């Protein structure tokens, strides 16, 4: 496929046009926004074969996984936004007492302006169009910059976009580092970035120069607690699925397992059974198993497999030519092992043994806060772990499924990112809550309010302060704490 990146002149021109569109007020019309959400839904549903084929070329991913994890999830988000945007956009009156009731205190949801969304390569549809849905729903004009690493998917989005979407509201810019830098040097009202923390820091620094708010969706080492009260067969099947879908290249993929020493061998055996059930002839020969995105990522992951101080007890096979890396389980890596130094982002699963839940929580808390945390345990134990740890999201009894529940917000904490999207959270991310007061200033009502509020004017006196306190102060509904 011919490489076609957007020129700097085109980037600046489209940015200017979108700012002009926003200033015209066209996106304030909720009906206009809903039409764009409808068009986006049809873009996804009309082009299933083209989208899944582009993703197959980029990631070697199966049609099934791309439809389930990309097209279905993103379509659901668009429909969720379409269904709720009328309610989310409504102004809300706020009760602040009888006097202020005369002033009609109200909060209005307004679009922030022209925004930039920088996507990631691992899920070329859901983590790129997903944030854009929030921007469209809120009424922002937007530029989407898909990752150039998933090249075929980025080029397809750029081709399909003008066929469905109104160019007055959104555009797709293609390019690499140079084009992204050009975009970051422009003025935005919000920047949404999905990717790694190294680039996330660069984006945040660039945005800070213009006091531009940002949302960073990053990643981290998401732990899995497996307690003796868990059903190990169910846990192993769900764990093997979550670690192998998209060949482990998922920001919320389970990164490592924490379990008691006496459970480790049982868990490994159940993981082995799950592997055989999923790929009876081996993952390499299965059309359902994906590939690593590029040679650089493959070399990084191969380096982990070759240099771990733990024992590889499942998988480990690989082929650099086809970028195949078998689902690999590492037993007993030390805490400073290469597999534990940073987010794995591939089909490698270390299993760490700990002496009880308290030690497991201390292990997690001693590291950067993860984007997700998973627990297989009875409810009482799960609640204890949730109470003792921090993470972007948490799932008890399964893995990664919180991402596909549309009304739930999705986002990180600490070095796993900040801000959120999906459902109403996406709408709020790209909205400004504008407060208004309409003080009566004419007619009989205006004169009445003026009489009530006249004690604020100089010359001041104790009597005037007392009157204002009686009028506007709140009575304390509690006594002094003991």
UniProtKB/TrEMBL annotation:
Q: Does the keyword Oxidoreductase apply?
A: yes
| Domain (Aldehyde dehydrogenase): residue spans on this chain | 11-434
Q: Where are the active-site residues found?
A: 217, 251
The protein's superkingdom reads Eukaryota
Recorded hits in PROSITE patterns, A to Z, give: ALDEHYDE_DEHYDR_GLU
Q: What species was this sequence derived from?
A: Talaromyces rugulosus
SUPFAM superfamilies attached to this UniProt entry: ALDH-like
GO CC entries: cytoplasm
Instruction: Please list the GO biological process terms of this entry.
Output: aldehyde metabolic process; carotenoid biosynthetic process
Q: Which InterPro entries does the record associate with it?
A: Ald_DH/histidinol_DH (IPR016161), Ald_DH_C (IPR016163), Ald_DH_CS_GLU (IPR029510), Ald_DH_N (IPR016162), Aldehyde_DH_dom (IPR015590), Aldehyde_DH_NAD(P) (IPR012394)
- Stated name of the protein: Aldehyde dehydrogenase
Q: Does the keyword NAD apply?
A: yes
| Annotated GO MF terms | aldehyde dehydrogenase (NAD+) activity
């Amino acid at each position: 496929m011919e490489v076609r990146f957007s020129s700097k002149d085109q980037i600046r021109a489209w940015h200017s046009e979108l700012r002009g569109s926003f200033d015209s007020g066209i996106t304030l019309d909720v009906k206009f926004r809903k039409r764009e959400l409808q068009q986006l839904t049809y873009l996804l549903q009309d082009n299933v074969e083209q989208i899944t084929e582009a993703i197959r070329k980029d990631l070697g991913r199966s049609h099934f996984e791309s439809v389930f994890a990309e097209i279905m999830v993103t379509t659901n988000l668009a429909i969720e936004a379409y269904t709720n945007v009328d309610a989310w956009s409504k102004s809300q009156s706020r009760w602040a007492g009888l006097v202020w009731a005369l002033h009609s205190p109200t909060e209005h949801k307004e679009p922030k302006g022209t925004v930039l969304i920088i996507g990631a390569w691992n899920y070329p549809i859901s983590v790129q169009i997903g944030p854009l849905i929030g921007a469209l729903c809120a009424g922002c004009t937007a530029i989407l910059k898909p990752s150039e690493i998933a090249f075929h998917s980025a080029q397809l989005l750029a081709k399909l976009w003008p066929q469905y979407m109104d160019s007055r509201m959104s555009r797709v810019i293609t390019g690499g580092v140079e084009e992204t830098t050009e975009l970051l040097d422009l003025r935005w009202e919000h920047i949404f970035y999905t990717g790694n923390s190294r680039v996330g820091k660069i984006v945040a620094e660039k945005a800070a120069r213009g006091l531009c708010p940002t949302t960073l969706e990053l990643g981290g080492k998401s732990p899995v607690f497996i307690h003796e009260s868990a059903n190990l067969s169910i846990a192993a099947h769900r764990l093997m699925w979550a670690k192998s879908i998209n060949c482990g290249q998922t920001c919320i993929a389970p990164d490592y397992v924490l379990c008691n020493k006496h459970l480790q061998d049982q868990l490994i055996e159940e993981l082995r059974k799950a592997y055989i059930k999923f790929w009876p002839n081996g993952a390499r020969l299965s059309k359902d198993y994906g590939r690593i995105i590029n040679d650089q990522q493959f070399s990084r992951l191969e380096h982990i497999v070759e240099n771990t101080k733990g024992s590889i007890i499942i998988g480990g096979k690989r082929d650099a030519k086809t970028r195949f890396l078998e689902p690999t389980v590492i037993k007993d890596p030390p805490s400073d092992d290469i597999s534990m130094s940073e987010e794995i982002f591939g089909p490698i699963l270390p299993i760490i043994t700990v002496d009880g839940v308290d030690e497991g929580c201390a292990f997690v808390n001693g590291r950067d806060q993860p984007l997700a945390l998973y627990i297989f345990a009875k409810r009482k134990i799960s609640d204890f772990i949730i109470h003792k740890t921090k993470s972007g999201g948490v799932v008890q009894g399964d893995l990664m499924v919180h991402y596909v529940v549309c009304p739930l917000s999705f986002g990180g904490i600490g070095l796993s990112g900040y801000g959120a999207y999906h459902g109403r959270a996406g709408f709020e991310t790209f909205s400004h809550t504008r407060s208004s007061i309409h003080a009566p200033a004419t007619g009989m009502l205006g004169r009445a309010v003026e009489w009530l509020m006249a004690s604020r004017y100089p010359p001041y006196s104790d009597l005037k302060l007392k009157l204002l306190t009686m009028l506007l102060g709140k009575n304390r509904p509690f006594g002094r704490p003991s």
